[in-house]
Amino acid sequence: xxxxxxxxxxxxxxxxxxxxxxxxxxxxxxxxxxxxxxxxxxxxxxxxxxxxxxxxxxxxxxxxxxxxxxxxxxxxxxxxxxxxxxxxxxxxxxxxxxxxxxxxxxxxxxxxxxxxxxxxxxxxxxxxxxxxxxxxxxxxxxxxxxxxxxxxxxxxxxxxxxxxxxxxxxxxxxxxxxxxxxxxxxxxxxxxxxxxxxxxxxxxxxxxxxxxxxxxxxxxxxxxxxxxxxxxxxxxxxxxxxxxxxxxxxxxxxxxxxxxxxxxxxxxxxxxxxxxxxxxxxxxxxxxxxxxxxxxxxxxxxxxxxxxxxxxxxxxxxxxxxxxxxxxxxxxxxxxxxxxxxxxxxxxxxxxxxxxxxxxxxxxxxxxxxxxxxxxxxxxxxxxxxxxxxxxxxxxxxxxxxxxxxxxxx
Length: 410
Known about the structure:
Oligomer: single chain
CATH architecture: Up-down Bundle
Radius of gyration: 21 Å
Shape: globular
Structural class: mainly alpha
Distance between the termini: 11 Å
């Protein structure tokens, strides 16, 4: 079984460091913290037909709407390869169990969110069902960090966990963006994104086919066209009113990539030289800083913000999502006859379900658009940070359940 590259561990530690620093800063000096992350670096007086509200460039917006698009591109590349490549982890029947677990986790999280919100929510600004897309996402980086400690690098259960959390993050953000998109007419700006995708494929991506000339291969291998197309794609997504973090994802399928599947975030991918992997390699070091900055700008937790919304978040993440993941997986196993991946036991599936109850990166990205601001949003943020304690419970569960010890490859 392949090894996951060590940069994933670095990503998790950088994110946790940013969250810890932000929480300390907010606790000691809340005014300076909010003044810093919301400082208006630049006002963009765009016409109404481009943006209904004049956007402002702030450190918070730069990280969440801009830099996090690089992280979602990096993660989206792994998901696309898992689906597209012949031996990808989601190709054919391999994808049935992770897909069923993801859908089940979504259903459980949303159902518990709606029930719990109707029972305990007291916020004045709340409305029935508000914020339901927020618990759809997980946290691929932090789930991996805890999963690696529990299962060990190279254990097949760790790969199943990565599949479920990556799919949760990508599709969860897409659903949240579409559900709270705003004026439908703004979607016309997606034509800019589609144009960027079309030009990239016709002018460069399709030239990488096996029967192409050497000159065509050299043209397809250049990285600058994909960078320029990325800027255009991102602009189209942002102007359409969708989360800027999604801006680079449409380009992933049209950038030439290898036909060999080494697994999710496999260490062996460092030796590949196709354009998609070269772009991913170039992002490895910057992304550690990006995730630190994301934790710093979005991870500040007001410990006094505890409210019914916090309980709703924790119920959806700790109860609804794990139960839904288990139910979805059991339906795939018992009703449709699919099998667990080789080396994965039922106890491992239970631990994976508990780990999916950790949610920070993508749920926080959707926080501002899916919930009213003020106290309700801060209470939800506190709940998302507290949801990371599910990792500790999963580690305890792994010790208590009978089964094999973790497997660590040399």
